[in-house]
Each structure stands twice: as C-alpha cells, then as structure tokens.
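Thread amino acids onto this structure.
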C-alpha cells in the first residue's frame, strides 16, 4: 500500500496488487474490511501484471509510484 497525492484529501491510501484469477478488487476489499480501521482501508485499488523489484528482490516503492502516479 502506498500513499498517493489526492486533490481532496492531500493523500489517499492506495493498494497496488497483482490479481489472481479467483480474486478481484471487490473481494479483496471485503476480505480486508474487518481487519483494518476505516482510515487505513485503501481508497484506490490498482492492479499490475507484476510489481517492480530492486536488486535485493524487494518491492521498489519509488519505481512503483512512478508507474502509477
């Protein structure tokens, strides 16, 4: 999850995920809802074919922000 700029809120929680055949964003939202307080629940959902990774294999958050921002 990332915080991305938003005109109304300043920044919104955004979930970036790689979809699998059985789940879509609506099902993910439903699954997360009982585990996250309202202000931590993503307002935007973005699906990508794959997440960018750095040389250590970790998710490259800066490159991710460039891709979706």
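Threaded sequence (69 positions):
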């Amino acid at each position: 999850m990332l915080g991305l700029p938003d005109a109304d809120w300043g920044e919104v929680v955004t979930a970036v995920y790689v979809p699998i055949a059985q789940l879509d964003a609506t099902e993910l939202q439903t699954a997360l809802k009982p585990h996250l307080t309202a202000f931590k629940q993503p307002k935007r959902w973005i699906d990508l074919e794959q997440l960018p990774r750095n040389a250590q294999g970790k998710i490259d958050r800066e490159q991710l922000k460039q891709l979706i921002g």
